[in-house]
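Sharing a chain and its predicted structure for anyone who wants a worked example. Both blocks are below, sequence first, tokens second.
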Amino acid sequence: MMTIVLRIFAWLLAAAVTFATLGPASYRPHSHLGQDGEHAFAFILIGVAFGLAYSRNRPRTAMIAVVMIGVIELLQLWAPGRHARLEDFVVDALTACVGLVIAAGLDWALQRMRAATNAS
């Protein structure tokens, strides 16, 4: 049940980021983090969400994420008022992978805590 909730959350988050990336610029949230900071924050969250939702094969999840991030970046070539930039792709892909690593670390820590609880 928890896996289903995590997967729904991950895909809703991905849909929101895709809309913010390809939709009208006026609908995109802005913060004090700046464009690179906003990208990094959004894609770390996506990496964590997908890393927790699809924990069985994280290398494959990472490859799919990087490819999809590239597709979203390229789709900006046809989105009015948007632009595809290599820098955005690199920031987005790297931070999504950082999020996947964070998810792996969280899984590892939870497994260690469960093992310690079961041992006592």
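Comments welcome. Residues 2-21+32-119 form one domain.
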